[in-house]
Design a protein that fits this description.
elongated
Length: about 350
C-alpha cells in the first residue's frame, strides 16, 4: 500500500509538468510494478507444514556380495490422514547390469540387489504429500566378503607361508603359523557357538554377523577362555611374553587393507614389518554391554589368560598395540564389559 501511495504521489507531481498522454504511459508501468511486488511478497510468505513422524526402514550396515534386500518404509504421518508417497534413491548409482533385481523406486517397499563391488552405498527414502514439506531418512550399507585369499574385503595378508588351516564347528576356516613353541592363528577368532553349552560367544563389529569373518568377533574374558576350537586355547600371558616379549608393535602389524582402504595409519615411530607372522589388523575393541565399538584402524586388542597374580575377580590382562606406539602394551580390562579379539594357540605340531 505504501508503494502504491508513493507512486500515485509521484504521478500527481508529474501530472502538473507532463502531458496527459505521458501520464497514461507511466501509470500502467507503475501498476504492473506494484502487482509484481505484491505477488512476490505473497510467494515469500507462503509456507507449508511438514509431514509428521519420521521415515524409517531396516538396512544392515554390511552386506555380502550379490545380496538382495527388501526395505519397507514406515513412520511418516499425514496430519490430515491424506495419502503419502514414498520414493527411493541410491548413491552412488548401481550399474544396470547389477540392478536386474531392483523394483521401481516408488512406493513403501523397495527391493535392491547391491552387486559385487566393495563399496559403501547410501539409500535414501523420502516421504511426500501434496501441500506439505516432505521428510526423508538416509542409511548406508557396505558390501564385504570374508576370507584371506585375496578376493575378500581384507587384503594384504600373505597366507602362502601358513603352516595349515583349522575349521571350527561353524565352518569358519583359520590359517595358523608357528611362532616360538606354539601354533598361532594369524586371524581373529570368529566363532560364536560352543559345542559344550550352545551359548553364543562374542559380538560382531557393528552388530552385523557378516563382519565376524572380516574383523573376527569381540569377546568378554569368560567367552575368550572358552570360544577357541577343540584342541586350541587362549594363550596365557606367560606364553604371549615368551613369543613376543622382545618384539615391538610393528613386528606384529601387517599392512592390510579393508575394501581397498589402508588399515594401519602411518606413523614414523612405528615400522610395520610383521616379522613375527602374527598379522595383526586394527580391529579396535568393543563394549559388550552397550554393543558399541571403538578404535577401528587405530588399535588391536587381545585377551590373554591371566597367570593369576595380575588378575582380580573383575579384571584380566589385555595385550594391545596402537598405530602410534612402537611398544606392545598391557592393561587390565573389565572381564564382563570389555570386548577384545582372540588369537587361539596350541602347542606346536609339525605338519606333514
Amino acid at each position: 500500500m505504501r508503494i502504491f501511495v508513493g507512486l500515485l504521489f509521484l504521478t500527481n507531481v508529474y501530472a502538473r509538468k507532463m502531458s496527459f498522454r505521458k501520464i497514461r504511459t507511466i501509470l500502467p508501468v507503475a501498476l504492473a510494478f506494484i502487482a509484481v511486488v505484491a505477488c512476490k511478497k505473497e510467494e515469500e510468505s507462503t509456507t507449508y507444514p511438514s509431514l509428521e513422524g519420521r521415515v524409517s526402514f531396516d538396512l544392515e550396515p554390511y552386506l555380502g556380495q550379490n545380496e538382495t534386500v527388501t526395505m519397507t518404509a514406515e513412520g511418516a504421518e499425514h496430519p490430515e490422514g491424506g495419502e503419502i508417497t514414498y520414493s527411493w534413491s541410491i548413491s552412488p548409482e548401481i550399474d544396470a547390469d547389477e540392478d536386474e533385481d531392483s523394483d521401481k523406486d516408488e512406493g513403501p517397499v523397495f527391493t535392491q540387489n547391491f552387486g559385487t563391488e566393495f563399496r559403501t552405498y547410501s539409500v535414501t527414502c523420502s516421504a511426500s504429500a501434496s501441500g506439505y514439506n516432505g521428510i526423508s531418512t538416509t542409511r548406508t550399507t557396505t558390501i564385504v566378503k570374508g576370507g584371506l585369499d585375496g578376493t575378500g574385503s581384507i587384503t594384504g595378508i600373505d597366507i602362502s607361508g601358513a603352516a595349515g588351516t583349522v575349521t571350527d564347528t561353524e565352518g569358519n576356516e583359520y590359517h595358523y603359523t608357528a611362532i616360538g613353541s606354539l601354533d598361532w592363528f594369524i586371524q581373529n577368532l570368529a566363532s560364536k557357538e560352543s559345542g559344550q553349552d550352545g551359548k553364543e560367544y562374542g559380538i560382531p563389529y557393528d552388530n552385523a554377523d557378516i563382519m565376524s569373518d572380516i574383523f573376527g568377533r569381540y569377546y568378554s574374558y569368560e567367552d575368550a577362555l572358552n570360544a577357541c576350537p577343540e584342541g586350541w586355547r587362549l594363550p596365557s600371558e606367560e606364553e604371549w611374553e615368551s613369543c613376543f616379549g622382545e618384539s615391538g608393535s610393528g613386528d606384529l602389524m601387517v599392512k592390510s587393507q579393508f575394501n581397498g582402504t589402508e588399515m594401519w595409519e602411518f606413523w614414523p615411530e612405528v615400522k610395520i614389518t610383521n616379522s613375527t607372522g602374527f598379522c595383526a589388523i586394527p580391529a579396535g575393541y568393543a563394549n559388550i554391554e552397550s554393543r558399541s565399538f571403538s578404535g577401528l584402524y587405530g588399535w588391536a586388542a587381545f585377551w590373554v589368560a591371566s597367570d593369576g597374580d595380575a588378575s582380580s575377580e573383575d579384571m584380566a590382562p589385555v595385550k594391545y598395540i596402537r598405530e602410534d606406539n612402537p611398544e606392545i602394551q598391557t592393561f587390565m580390562a573389565d572381564k564382563a564389559s570389555f570386548g577384545a579379539s582372540v588369537r587361539c594357540v596350541r602347542d606346536h605340531q609339525d605338519t606333514i
